[in-house]
Design a protein that fits this description.
By secondary structure, the chain is mostly helical. Helices cover about 70% and strands about 5% of the residues. The protein contains 29 helices and four strands. A four-stranded antiparallel β-sheet has the order 1-2-3-4, covered by helices on one side. Helix 8 runs antiparallel to helix 9, helix 11 runs parallel beside helix 13 and helix 27 packs antiparallel against helix 28. The protein is flat.
């Protein structure tokens, strides 16, 4: 970006004011533009940003990639290749990318929102402001309300209740497009109250994020707030903070003073698992995380299995996920098989945590057990997803698997698995077949996907032509017919090129008599196409 930060700031501040005036924070359309632009920015989908004088060009990788130009002096003159004829989410995302270099995007959004409630300090008393903004309180009131953290796990839990305000939760409901930012801000506020001692900070962090996961989820469930895939990222953030805390705790042996805190966490985890008000997905993620990383004693895990087996089932999906998790941790695969049958296709939906942990942790036999059981359930699971979600899931799934190990263990399983995920697994399956030299299956795959010969040449057709030339013949036969049927000079030239490939294959396999038969057939079939006949002569397929 060939412009100094100060120069960029001088240009962006007037533009910022213009955009804030253009977008009404009270209108759903404007809120949608800002929230989707923020999402594109935070996902790093803005690229190739170039600033030249008063113009900015950029590319945004949305569902359909777009290119755009921003006019820093007159934002309304900005252009985007998307169908939107107004200020769009792609322009918003690019503006956020630029603004992030000179200021804080979260503050810009807050300032934009505040436009809906214009402040006139001269005309408003302190009491008026406090009535208007329910979250505002006098310093004396805050001091009176102030609670101490205490020195026991129970006191910590009660202290968190005083830190998490009703206003925090209501803000999540009012501003769902900022949910991840709001949760991060709440977490930062919690962490400001962490113990001073370095060894206690990670434990406090684990407690705080666990508490927030339960309480935020509980509030959203009670309010029937439906979360999008992007909004679920706030749980990923909280789990990431938990994982960071556990990693710090694992550096050194935990002191005995931590024992009551760990026991308290275990008790709270069991209470959470019995809750019918929390969401299944949140409970499953947090439960599996804590039992995998923190509650490692085999006796604890066996006791938990007994508890789960004896309890009354109110949330069947969570119950099966929790029970399967314990059997996998104890490597009791016979018992795990029974639960897998109960779980059905839900096994695939909840497999991400297990595959990541067991394969990365080199517990290959447990991972192999999961893959074998996922295989038969994969097609039904993919049918429940849209194309984008299915593609994303399959790409992740293939990437997490230790393919080299699986190939040695059971190459037929790998073949079946990739086959079951078509068409989303095409490129992985294509590469697998070429690597395995399964050229006949590769040709069948190309027929199924209907790619052009030009595309196939970059995906393995050259290898097939070299190693098993007779298998490449049907592809070139079809290519010749397709090209001739387009009935133009360029397509005839392409057909001749493919016919030369066929001639070469017949010469290599010493079946020139078949070439003569094929050439006679094609020339006779298309004898009325003079231009095609002429291209055949130019290509020296027939005498002049």
């Amino acid at each position: 970006m060939s412009i100094r930060i100060q120069e960029l700031k001088d240009k962006l501040l007037p533009m910022s004011q213009s955009i804030q005036g253009m977008l009404d924070p009270n209108q759903d359309e404007s809120k949608n533009v800002v929230s989707k632009g923020l999402l594109l920015f935070r996902q790093n989908l803005v690229s190739n940003v170039k600033v030249r004088d008063e113009e900015v060009s950029a590319e945004v990788q949305d569902v359909t990639p777009v290119t755009l130009e921003l006019n820093l002096l007159f934002p309304l003159l900005s252009k985007c290749s998307c169908p939107q004829d107004k200020w769009c989410r792609h322009q918003m995302a690019t503006f956020f990318m630029l603004y992030n270099k000179v200021g804080r995007v979260s503050e810009w959004i807050q300032n934009w929102r505040n436009q809906s409630e214009p402040a006139t300090p001269e005309a408003q008393s302190l009491d008026d402001l406090m009535k208007k903004h329910g979250a505002l309180k006098k310093a004396s009131d805050l001091l009176n309300e102030r609670k101490t953290r205490g020195n026991s796990p129970e006191e910590w839990w009660q202290f968190f209740g005083s830190l998490l305000k009703k206003e925090d939760l209501e803000l999540l409901e009012r501003q769902p497009y900022l949910m991840d930012v709001l949760v991060q801000n709440i977490t930062k506020r919690f962490m400001k109250e962490a113990p001073f001692e370095r060894e206690w900070k990670p434990l406090y962090q684990l407690f705080a994020t666990f508490y927030l996961s339960i309480e935020i989820d509980l509030f959203l469930q009670k309010r029937n707030v439906e979360l999008s895939r992007e909004q679920y990222s706030m749980y990923d953030f909280l789990l990431g903070e938990m994982e960071d805390a556990v990693e710090k705790l694992s550096i050194h042996a935990m002191p005995f003073s931590f024992d009551p805190y760990i026991a308290f966490l275990k008790k709270q985890t069991i209470e959470m698992s019995d809750s019918t008000e929390n969401s299944t997905i949140m409970k499953a993620e947090v439960y599996r995380f804590l039992w995998y990383y923190l509650f490692k004693q085999k006796s604890w895990r066996r006791d938990e299995v007994t508890r789960l087996e004896e309890e009354e089932i109110e949330d069947p999906t969570f119950h099966n996920v929790a029970l399967l998790h314990q059997y996998l941790l104890l490597e009791d695969l016979n018992k795990a098989s029974e639960v897998v049958d109960e779980l059905g296709t839900e096994l695939v939906a909840y497999s991400e945590f297990w595959l990541r942990k067991f394969f990365v942790g080199k517990r290959y036999e447990v991972g192999f057990f999961l893959v074998r059981n996922i295989l038969s359930r994969m097609p039904d699971h993919l049918e429940t997803l849209d194309y984008y979600e299915a593609t994303r899931f399959v790409r992740w799934f293939v990437r997490i698997l230790p393919m080299d190990w699986l190939m040695e263990k059971d190459s037929a399983l790998v073949n079946e698995l990739l086959l079951s995920m078509l068409p989303y697994s095409f490129f992985s399956y294509n590469e697998y077949l070429i690597t395995a030299k399964a050229y006949r299956e590769w040709v069948e795959l190309q027929k199924y996907m209907s790619y052009s010969i030009a595309e196939m040449e970059g995906m393995g057709l050259r290898d097939v032509t070299k190693e098993a030339p007779e298998l490449a013949l049907p592809i070139y036969y079809a290519g010749v017919i397709t090209a001739i049927d387009q009935k133009n000079r360029d397509s005839y030239k392409l057909a001749v090129r493919y016919m030369k490939k066929i001639r070469t294959i017949y010469k290599k396999t010493k079946k020139t008599d078949k070439w003569d038969v094929y050439l006679t057939y094609i020339l006779e079939k298309y004898k009325r196409l003079r231009a095609f006949q002429e291209e055949c002569r130019k290509g020296k397929l027939i005498d002049a």
